[in-house]
Amino acid sequence: MADPSSYRPKPGQIPDSPGVYKFRDEHRRVIYVGKAKSLRQRLASYFQDLAGLHPRTRTMVTTAASVEWTVVSTEVEALQLEYSWIKEYDPRFNVKYRDDKSYPYLAVTMNEQFPRVQVMRGHKKKGVRYFGPYGHAWAIRDTVDLLLRVFPVRTCSAGVFKNATRTGRPCLLGYIGKCSAPCVERISAEDHRELAEEFCDFMAGRTGTYIRRLERQMMDAAEEMEYERAARLRDDIEALKKAMEKNAVVLADATDADLIALSEDELEAAVQIFHVRGGRVRGQRGWVTDKVEAVTTGDLVEHALQQLYGEETGDSVPKEVLVPALPDPVEPVQEWLTARRGSNVSLRIPQRGDKKALMETVQRNALQALGLHKTKRASDLTTRSRALEEIAEALDLDSAPLRIECYDISHLQGDDVVASMVVFEDGLQRKSEYRRFQIKGFEGQDDVRSMHEVINRRFKRYLAEKEKTGEWADGETGLTEEDGRPKRFAYPPQLVVVDGGQPQVAAAQRALDELGIDDIAVCGLAKRLEEVWLPGDDDPVVLPRTSEGLYLLQRVRDEAHRFAITYQRTKRARRFRASPLDDVPGLGETRKQALIKHFGSVKKLRSATIDQICEVPGIGRKTAEAIAVAFAQAAPAAPAVNTATGEIMEDEANAEYAADAGPETTAGPAGEPVSAGASDERRGQET
């Protein structure tokens, strides 16, 4: 625990102007970001008597080891910079709203030649029109099913669309009239895009004009005695009205507004947002957060606005935002929202009428969401705390291991040897910290040696970064990349877990000893009997089967195994796809697998004779000769396969990643890990 007076700035050093400040811990990790109208007054409030601080603020300042600030011109700039830094550094002591579930959107991919209507979750993509979010995916599908009768826009996947184009036959929706079938050129790309734009206009609330137009067309068709066409238009109008009835009118003046309500206690807060467009509720979402700092209701509203509109521009920001309390001061926030929209935005508290009544409904939803969240999470918090305490007691640690790293080795009969590193903080997955390694110093099924190499490379990098910054005591930013982000491998764990028994644990401990690291505990979890092994002990630690500590270790170990084997399978699949065997006519996937299984690797298959290849069941002499010719003709500079080894070349290996991976590392000069990064959007996704 640090003494705040040890890093308190000198009197007069802090400017009396607007700015944004960062508190960092002893490892130079940013733990809190804040903004202030006057940096001098705000920062002085943190360095008063600890007894006078809010408990969570007291925890933050005693965890921090340094403070730094950036001066800006206006409070609006401070608001923008604060949002950017919170998003970049993910500080543990800032208010961070978490979705209480993953909300689906109705999306129209206007960035494609033939726009597609589909259900989407996750990050928004450029060029895609979004409507929602909705409470349930089935609600979107019901609405789309009604609207496709009137707006037969494409809904099929890229694979189905491509297959229909190739065969010249549309899918079922094309036959029943719920798709205009652009795949077989029943409609031009321009007309299909116009259809998609009409669909978007209807979903955006511009419904009255379109229905009136259909009614006029129906009357004209009836007068001209085109009764079949008039009946179809009548049914289209009924379908549209039925779709509209799913969203009742809540504001009679066709208002576009977002309503934000909060329910909070001393520890947590829940926020509910209703999106009203054209007077109808078009979407709803909810977030929850831990109150890890002393915040008012206005502060919570400000953080919610930052998270809600930080990535939005134009019409995505409504003309009116109704809130339960105004941020203090409110002017910079209102100016920021106006800049995001491009026109004036009203931020206010509803006082009477329909808007106040609707706000009360949103408030009831927030109250219910907080109660439900507490019911779900109470056991989780207790369980995680108990699990960490049981691990600390079983392994004789000084304190609970708040950061646990687990390593696993994966290969196929000695080929494509890879390793994974997964991180759990406070008993929860920290997927942005996941790492993966290629083991290329040797070949063979030597998990012990592989484990030693991985631990050595990971902590050698940690020591190198630690040495560069002089134990992080000089206040420099040596632990950040050129773009200001924290470097990889910068933070040490309290506990290293390896997937394996006594040999793997001994290898991991030996690697740490060779590097002179003596403040990190090591243990292993053997799969057969789920025994916990400690370095130097002849007998394992046996935790009860009902132990929460054992359950947490199993989760960590299983996640490391999943992460490693997913990466290993992806590498193997790429190697097969890029293999010279692809050029052999008549050689399918089954016989390719049989060849690899028989010889163990592409390298050994390459060096085999024609007679040896003929020994594989199902491989005749003619096919064996074709295989030998394919390997002989493989170009040395092939982009995906090194023809000398049959393995993926380094550039290709670093260029492609599995969908759920963090950065991988490959052996660099003198065994140093050379990291190949992965974007935030792809970190930790499941496959």
Quick structural overview:
The chain has 687 residues and is α+β, with helices and mostly antiparallel strands. Helix content is 41%, strand content 17%.
Summing up helix and strand content along with how strands pair, one would put the structural category as alpha+beta
The largest sheet, given as strand count, sense and whether it forms a barrel, is: 9 strands, mixed
Helix content: 40-55%
Give the oligomeric state of the chains in this entry, treating copies of one chain as homo and distinct chains as hetero: single chain
Mass-distribution shape: flat
Low-confidence stretches: 471-485, 635-687
CA distance, first residue to last residue: 40 Å
Total strands:
23
Please state the average pLDDT score.
78
Radius of gyration: 30 Å
Helices, by number, come to: 20
Strand content: 15-25%
Write a structural description.
- By secondary structure, the protein is an alpha+beta fold.
- It is 41% helix and 17% strand.
- It is built from 20 helices and 23 strands.
- The strands form 5 sheets. Strands 13, 14, 15, 16, 17, 18, 19, 22 and 23 form a 9-stranded mixed sheet that branches. It has a 6-stranded mixed sheet with strand order 4-10-9-8-11-12. A 3-stranded antiparallel sheet has the order 2-1-3.
- Helix 4 packs antiparallel against helix 9 (227-245) and helix 13 packs parallel to helix 14.
- The two termini are 40 Å apart.
- Mean pLDDT is 78; it is low at 471-485 and 635-687.
